[in-house]
Amino acid sequence: MTLGRTLRMLALAGATAFPLIAQSAQAEPASRTLRAASDVGLAPFAMVNPDGGYRGFSIDLVNELASRLGYDDVNVMDVQFSSIFSGLYADRYDMILAPTDITRERAEKMLFTEGYMSNQLGVLMSAEADVEAPKALEGMTLAVNSGSVAEDWANEHQEQYGFDVQRYDQNTDAVQAVMSGQADANVTDSPAADYVAQQQSRLAVAFDIDTGSRVGLAFSKENRELRDRADHAIEQMKADGTLAGLYENWFGSEPRPGGAMTMISVGRGEPGMPGYELTFDQGRSTP
After folding, report:
1. Solute-binding protein family 3/N-terminal domain: from which residue to which, for each copy (predicted)?
2. Interior CA angle at 47 toward 60 and 204, to 5°?
3. Which domain holds residue 149?
4. Confidence band (pLDDT; 50, 70, 90) for 28?
5. 3-state class of 225 per DSSP?
6. Do 114 and 28 share a domain, yes or no?
């Protein structure tokens, strides 16, 4: 049995082992405003309202997080995903809110909370396309968001499956490339692909690609205290059903039982990744 699996089994087959709900992650923040970066336009995570404000799953998530951490306000900054990491390193914002897959390469450079959503990639194509597997993508053009795990997958498998890759600063532009005929498919996070397919009858998710990855909130290595407090708040949101409620509201279905949205991990961060700390103080209210 691996360490990661052991930790997940310890982590609660429910929140009974660690009574998180009754505790508070709140502590006095250094600033009254939580600064968060997101790639606005990636539906349904972060979208622009007609009045210029933002809405979406990630927006509701960060507002709930800020409330639990004791902030008065949230400043969500619209940052292209291709440059979102450099802004974190330069301390332009406190955290990356955009759905960010936890990979070992990224975890070497920044700190993650434990995963709050299981992720796979969806291949978004014309609803008339008859494609069911990556091998059928030969000769096609795939549109991806620069800097994303979808781009990583496309780079790794381009030669194997014989497709071309177009890269865009925002996934909305990649989707538009498919709708205009400039590309044959958009590869993106499957929740986003499913949402676009629901909104655009001309498009459908041809198939999913299982990456085995999980999505987490990202912080700079100098901001471990905030990462730890945010990690604790995410665990609370899993335990009291808030996170599952947000998912159901924006994605129209309940999260998969036993997935990252309901399973709580012991410690701080993503087990098995750099930056993870094994602790058993799940009930603490301050860092």
Report:
1. 33-254
2. 110
3. 120-212
4. low
5. helix
6. yes
